[in-house]
Amino acid sequence: MACGGGRGCVALRGAQIRDLLDAKHNVLFDCDGVIWNGETAVTGAPEVVSLLKQRGKRVFFVTNNCTRPRENYVQKFSRLGFADVAEEEIFSSAYCSAAYLRDVARLRGKVYVIGCGGVMKELRDAGVPVAEEEDAEPGASIYTCPLDPDVKAVLVGYDENFTFMKLAKACCYLRNSECLFLATDPDPWHPLRGGRVTPGSGSLTAALETASSRKATVIGKPSCFMFDCIASQFGVDPAHSLMIGDRLETDVLFGSNCGLTTVLTLTGVSTLQEALAYRDSQEPQQKNCAPDYVMESVADFLQALED
Amino acid sequence: MAASKCTRLTGALSRQLLDSVDSVLFDCDGVIWRGDQAIPGAPDVINSLKKNGKRVFFVTNNSTKTRQMYAEKLGKLGFDASADEVFGTAYCSAVYLKNVCKLDGKVYLIGSNAMRQELEDVGIRPVGVGPDPISGVQKDWANVPLDNEVRAVLVGFDEHFSYMKLNRALQYLCNPDCQFVGTNTDTRLPLEGGKAVPGTGCLLRAVETAAQRQAEVVGKPSNFMFECVAGQFGLDPERCLMVGDRLDTDIMLGSNCGLKTLLTLTGVSTVAEAEANQKSECPHRQKMVPDYYIESIADILPALQA
């Protein structure tokens, strides 16, 4: 391998940064905690993205956040000062879940969705039929859920309107072993501003897995599907690709699983201490959560890019 | 030891077994009733046991009824029973929070009115019961107003479970000093009217996953359910029989507490599953092998009436 690393949490600085960038044609960025935090861009991030593209690198954004459709992400990029980020460069778990259902599962039927507006929009845009949620009739009970016979898949993601009724309905559909069971992402909680958290898709998926005694196929990081999605559209070679993220158990593990070189940035969820603990662990699965490199912030790339 | 287990309970053995115990603990769903129907012969069995001088208790993971509500259901179905003989998880969770957690303050409750009632009866104030739909936007949710007297989160069966409730529980549980208790881990409700409905275990898993914390679980197979009964009635485990339909809750509880165990086949588990556990080398599975099994508890009746 051109660049060491070896899951060693090597602090990335100076000439090393230039060498790393020279060896990698494609740079994949997680979003939350890497290039922005909430509605604030990480200082220097817009410049880094711009300069990478000027240097001929291909840049992709890979996010487990399924709450927005891609066109909303394009607007957010623009709002936060990132110039010319195209919809095609954005791979969200909502977009990839729709792509999976359409292209991999080749779904012939409807999908029952526990999810938010962002997921619904991507499914509609991909032409995947969604089972309509009827308004709860008075007297509707968890013991009598009217089922749509055309439902051939259940997709669970972040849903602020999650209710027991939805859980019961999804569980009924999943009793048919032919019905697919997908989850947008496994994140148990999502960070909000100021170190606060909110329950994530992973917690809703856990409820449904427990109810149905089935395991969901997870689309988002650390599963490789989002990388497969990028590779199938853009012919991306893992050996020449860099994954930059802030969450060891999702971004870094994703990078490891897909054969990418991984960089942890310390502007988000995970800490250097946690990275070192994974590095020193004896268990292979834990070791895969250790990044090759660590940097304080993506702004550290600027010194190498600005000459 | 293994060789003497998983024996079919026949007439003579029934007599012997009953003579060797003073108290019989029954699970409810799948053992003495199914939904709102008594298992045929079950009321006669319970009533005869009492006439024979045995003490009878009812031990259930179901958190949706108070002891009083159970007593009413038992009465309606022909069982001679009183509220203080019933140990459901609504009651036992309240006792657990009071006596084991030594809770001094309020509890954020994801659960039923029955749970709220049992908590209030032991002097604990619950908050949060009832519908709780989402409002506001994402950035508001981490800032939901928290009651600073809440010292514990308790999760039981709640058909009003929602994202907002999950969120509130998470916010409370971000404080490591906030205690975390669940009534039980059963993944499905028993078949009320024939449909399997997601159980408390699902709701608890959602909260545990979001909070990245494990709850202390009160219900079977946790020993606490037996300790609760034994503590109030001075029971000797060796003179107790646990009768249940589930190997992973009822029989496991019996094994862990040193009770004699009887599996009835009117509910969830089968003899084949019990025998597979018996043959396995796994110590955990060995605890899910009953001493005896019987088609239905009604089959004990002849031995009682002899």
UniProtKB/TrEMBL annotation, chain A:
Gene3D superfamilies, per the entry: HAD superfamily/HAD-like
GO cellular component entries: cytosol
UniProt-listed Pfam families: Hydrolase_6, Hydrolase_like
Cofactor(s) essential for the protein: Mg(2+)
Protein residues bound to Mg(2+): D30, D32, D246
Any GO molecular function: metal ion binding
Matching InterPro entries: HAD-like_sf, HAD-SF_hydro_IIA, HAD_sf, PGP_euk
Coiled coil: none
The record's free-text note on cofactor binding: Divalent metal ions. Mg(2+) is the most effective.
Residues binding substrate: H190, K221
Similarity comment: Belongs to the HAD-like hydrolase superfamily.
Protein's name in the database: Pyridoxal phosphate phosphatase
TrEMBL record, chain B:
Magnesium keyword on record: yes
GO annotation (BP), single: glycerol biosynthetic process
EC number: 3.1.3.21, 3.1.3.48
Active site residues of this protein: D27, D29
Pfam families noted in UniProt: Hydrolase_6, Hydrolase_like
Cofactor: Mg(2+)
Catalytic activity: sn-glycerol 3-phosphate + H2O = glycerol + phosphate; O-phospho-L-tyrosyl-[protein] + H2O = L-tyrosyl-[protein] + phosphate; sn-glycerol 1-phosphate + H2O = glycerol + phosphate
UniProt-annotated binding residues for substrate: K220
The family this protein is said to belong to: Belongs to the HAD-like hydrolase superfamily. CbbY/CbbZ/Gph/YieH family.
The protein's assembly and partners: Homodimer.
Protein name per Swiss-Prot or TrEMBL: Glycerol-3-phosphate phosphatase
Species, as recorded: Onychostoma macrolepis
Lineage, top ranks: Eukaryota, Metazoa, Chordata, Craniata, Vertebrata
